[in-house]
Amino acid sequence: MHIDIITLFPDMFTEIFAQSILHRAQTKGLFSVEVHNLRDYSTNKNRRVDDYPYGGGAGMVIQIEPVDNCIKHLSSIRKYDEIIYTAPDGQPLTQSLCNELSLKENICILCGHYKGIDERIREHLITREISIGDYVLSGGELAAAVIADSVVRLLPGVLNDETSALTDSFQQELVSPPVYTRPADYNGWKVPEILLNGNDKLIDAWRFEQALERTRQRRPELMDEK
Ligand code: ADE
């Protein structure tokens, strides 16, 4: 999978893609990413990419021309399966949407801007709009990073334990069961006995029961979906 990200703040992504699983996915050749500065596609001598809103009002609006220039240029290199815009009024990012996106070859993500972008970008250049939750971020960069992380970890071979993405919270409309590691007894706080007895069947059944119980208690609405 290849992801292109278009942003006014490219430096925000440097460490995110240089660490942990996203980094390992790149060194394994399973994923590549390029971050593009929208200002590089401005035709303005001061590299401006925004202007005042028609009709007045506070804040500046991202202009269509640099975005169109950038997407045209990138589309001449790759054919995109999706050109995503991050926005609080987009489609909610869910595990099932992550699964769907993980099957794509090439994705472009245009990071949203706090005062918005010219609506014609959304109408004509974007194929999907995604929100990462019902709250407002200062910009779309963190949302783009969340989308990339949640999708790339699902690519075959990215996680060491092939099954671990399948047992994630939400993957079966359930949250994950609790996990423990050594020591078995920390100042009297004990690990559940069943995990120590080595009976895989009983342990699987216990974990499933715990996942059900946790989902019932913490996120009951997940069990109603589907
Ligand atoms: N930009 C600002 N808030 C956002 C959100 N919740 N999701 C995606 N993009 C955003």
Topology:
Blueprint: E1 2-7, H1 20-27, E2 32-37, E3 50-51, E4 61-62, H2 64-75, E5 82-92, H3 95-101, E6 106-110, H4 119-124, E7 128-131, H5 141-152, E8 185-186, E9 189-190, H6 200-218, H7 221-224
Parallel strand pairs: 1-2, 1-6, 5-6, 5-7
Antiparallel strand pairs: 3-4, 8-9
The protein binds adenine.
Adenine binds next to strand 5.
Which word captures the global form?
Answer: elongated
Distance between the termini: 29 Å
Number of domains: 2
Describe the strand arrangement of the main beta sheet, using strand numbers: 2-1-6-5-7
SSE string, helix = H, strand = E?
Answer: EHEEEHEHEHEHEEHH
Gist of the model:
The chain is 30% helix and 18% strand. It has 226 residues and is α/β, with parallel strands linked by helices. Bound molecules: adenine.
Overview of the molecule:
With 226 residues, this protein is an alpha/beta fold. The protein folds into two domains: 151 residues, SPOUT methyltransferase, trefoil knot domain (Alpha/beta knot, 3-Layer(aba) Sandwich); 57 residues, tRNA(m1g37)methyltransferase, domain 2 (Trp Operon Repressor, Chain A, Orthogonal Bundle). The chain contains seven helices and nine strands, in the order E-H-E-E-E-H-E-H-E-H-E-H-E-E-H-H. The strands form three sheets. A five-stranded parallel beta sheet has the order 2-1-6-5-7. It has a two-stranded antiparallel sheet with strand order 3-4. The longest helix has 19 residues. It is elongated. The protein starts with a strand and ends with a helix. The mean pLDDT is 95. It binds adenine. Adenine binds next to strand 5.
